[in-house]
Amino acid sequence: MTSSSFASLVRDYLKERYDESPSWASMLGLTEYDERAEDLSAEAFRRRDEQVAAWLTRFGALSDEDLDAAERIDRDAILASLRGRELVRPRLDWRRQPNTYLNPSLQGVFVLFLHRLRPDRELANAARMRLEAASRHVAAGKANVDFALVPRVYAERAVGQAKAAARYARELVPAEVADAGSREKVAMAGATAAQAYEEFAAFLRENLARCSGDYAIGEELYTALLRHKELLPFGARELRERGREQYDLLANEANKIAREVDGSGDWVAACERLNHIHAPTPDAMREEYAEWTERARSFLLDTGLVTLPDGETCTVEPSPHFQRPIQAVASYQSPPAFTDSRHGHFFVPYPPDGTPPEEVQKRLEGNCSAGIPTTAVHEAYPGHHWHLIMAKQNPSPVRRTHFTSYFAEGWGLYAERVMREQGFFTEPRFLLFQYEATLFRAARIVVDTSLHMGEMGFDEAVDFMTKKGNLTRPNAIAEVGRYCSWPTQASSYLTGMLEIVDIRTRWLARRGSADRAALRAFHDAITSTGSIPTSLAERAISA
Fold first, then answer.
1. Which residues, in sequence order, are CB contacts of 490 under 8 Å at separation 6+?
2. How far apart are CA 76 and CA 105, in angstroms?
3. What's the rounded Cα separation, in Å, for the pair 206 and 208?
4. CA proximity to 8, closest of 69, 58, 64
5. What is this structure's pTM?
6. Which of 158, 178, 210 is the last residue of a domain?
7. Per-residue model confidence (pLDDT) at position 471
8. Domain that residue 255 falls in
9. How many domains does the chain have?
10. Judgement on whether residues 421 and 485 belong to the same structural domain of the protein
11. Pairwise CA distance, residues 296 & 479, whole Å
12. pLDDT tens string 148-199
């Protein structure tokens, strides 16, 4: 196979992916998909399953001799992604997961106005068309969802998201449109979409008692995803033991730092006391995040720990309204992969609208002043923002579009670690919370694997994360709900970080230097590979 033949095959594969998920295509900056919406019918899901099987056969037939080194990595990244989809196919998530019918229209509208890649009237028209699709999506959801498969926690999360979606569609989307005539059309479509979302929320509430599905995917599938999608050399049970070992090691170090903070020698007690020192309001919390984001960027400029591309910027903003009921932690949205933009968005976790004042305070405790520097590093500099700005410079369309959280979230936690190693966290309380953040990720591994192996229940997991992860109870409930809905993702942070540290050790040993110049070269090289499985990233920088 020639390089042009492989490139043509990749183009055909990606074109099919864009056609199946126009909202994802818009997120990548492919504006020609903006007026289109997903087909969420049962027939469409069955067609996608057939396409996955066909592409597995086609890419699996390509031998190493047919491809150069970079193409072999691209092929293996595609195959890993396809195998992941094939492995979860029997679970019928399109019948099990109600938010399948909310996310495309919500995210599809949100990315249009987040990036604003087109004139206002064109954006308004695209938003109108996607809002109009919400009724079709909800109708498909009502037809497809099988409450014998749906875990109650999935339905409850979708109810909260649907209620927030209704306000987003009815009030907030029209406010994004400047032209009065266009705004009126968007408002009409938004009102119709809001009604559909409210009807879906009512439909789910009415059927909560019928929800009898199991969120646990089982040890066999969890292990298969680790080995064949993430290309890792261990299974679920081994991973859980690794999480426990790391937790104990980290807790010992954190207790030493706690002695410096308040003399207690108890990291949990020290963090609990520091949790009460926080911004008085969500807006003041956002300002603290913005200040520390700029401090982290300045540290990188002063130390030369990474190369900062020209024109990159990262703004710190409130989290989108429709995500607030299901997202209790900070998040990041990268600039579209197929545009020249280097402007990223760091979203800080605002409480859902209507949250009681006492719970707002609990959520603010989960974003205390001592912990904010670590999160700013993770989400922005040199975490997700810097990484994904580097990744979008890779010329391969596969590297720009294929993503695993085991690299991306592993990098975010690695960013915290390297900033700790290089002296960014200058006060013991800040250092303590970097350890706390890593302990939290170790606890996540224990809980995520245990939940999905069926060896820990929901309430037990909430208690574990409250006691071992330094989470307030509302945040712990939101976190565990997320783990139930997104198996293997919660384990990706610490697992990926440890893989990256091991790759760094081998890479620096070959180079024969570990000074800041060598570190910068490693950081620039590995992030430029994209967000592919870590073993493939190591191959890419070792070629």
1. 444, 445, 447, 448, 479, 482, 483
2. 31
3. 6
4. 58
5. 0.94
6. 210
7. 85
8. 227-542
9. 2
10. yes
11. 27
12. 999 999 999 999 999 999 999 999 999 999 999 999 999 999 999 999 999 9
